[in-house]
Design a protein that fits this description.
Elements: E1 2-4, H1 15-19, E2 51-54, E3 61-62, E4 73-78, E5 85-87, E6 90-92, E7 100-107, E8 114-122, E9 131-140, E10 150-158, E11 162-169, E12 172-180, E13 192-199, E14 202-206, E15 212-216, E16 227-234, E17 241-249
Length: about 250
């Protein structure tokens, strides 16, 4: 499914495409009208991270200017955002209780082949499905409204109940696969893990419920992107908040 979006519509890295309107059916167990991605065999070994930050190793306070390996962070935001700040061993975007997004980016200098995180959903100010984490890699402009064209070979949105994997081509999100978790992910701060590796035309995805899937698209190799991104997004009041415990990319 192709979804034309303006640069401003990348507020939430396009998570609004997942969360608003219910236009697409989700599910790992297929039902009438649902579009699903089949589970895959075990994933191939991912490349070793080139950047990795363990947030529990940082004292409470403003987000540091650089990651643990020394690569600078580039921050973007839209809507009411009070952070990011380090608090209690995690990075918190401090999104206001309305539509808002915080983008934590690192420029690796060459194409990103992997992006992942240890993270959690927490209940304040709400536990609805209107909160999400997005893993992405950007080429060209940076969302939400950087000058130029936004493109991405990987754009994975995870909410407490579902996930959607897309690419972005010339400011257009192209949905490739979606699914719903058999059980909603916890929203009590429990650590979860999500990891995406790009290999040729494949995105090999380790989802936070322990399942894996591989999504193929022949446009992926033509979208080398040097900027890894970890995005916290709230689509509407009450949406679950995201805490980042560890971030990495290769």
């Amino acid at each position: 499914m192709s979804t034309p979006v303006s640069r401003r519509a990348f507020l939430g890295g396009g998570a609004a495409v997942l969360l608003a309107g219910g236009a697409v059916a989700y599910g790992l167990a297929a039902g009438a009208g649902e579009r699903t991605a089949p589970l895959s065999p075990p994933l191939s070994p991912p490349p070793a991270p080139r950047v990795r930050t363990v947030w529990r190793d940082h004292a409470d306070g403003p987000m540091p200017a650089r990651g643990d390996e020394g690569v600078p962070f580039v921050l973007r935001a839209a809507g009411p955002v009070g952070g990011p700040v380090v608090r209690g061993g995690a990075l918190d975007a401090e999104l206001g209780d309305q539509r808002a997004a915080s983008y934590v980016n690192q420029d690796l200098g060459t194409a990103v082949h992997r992006v992942g995180a240890r993270f959690a959903f927490v209940p304040g100010p709400g536990t609805s499905d209107d909160g999400s984490l997005c893993l992405a890699a950007w080429r060209g402009a940076l969302p939400p409204d950087g000058p130029g064209v936004i493109e991405a070979p990987v754009h994975l949105v995870v909410t407490p109940r579902r996930w959607i994997h897309s690419i972005a081509v010339e400011n257009e999100l192209v949905e490739l696969a979606t699914g719903a978790f058999d059980r909603p992910l916890p929203t009590d701060g429990s650590a979860l893990r999500v990891d995406v590796t790009l290999a040729g035309d494949r995105a090999e995805i380790a989802l936070p419920d322990g399942t894996t899937t591989t999504v193929r698209d022949d446009r992926v190799p033509a979208l080398p992107a040097p900027v890894a991104c970890w995005e916290s997004y709230r689509h509407a009041p009450g949406g679950a908040a995201v805490r980042l415990y560890e971030t990495w990319a290769a």
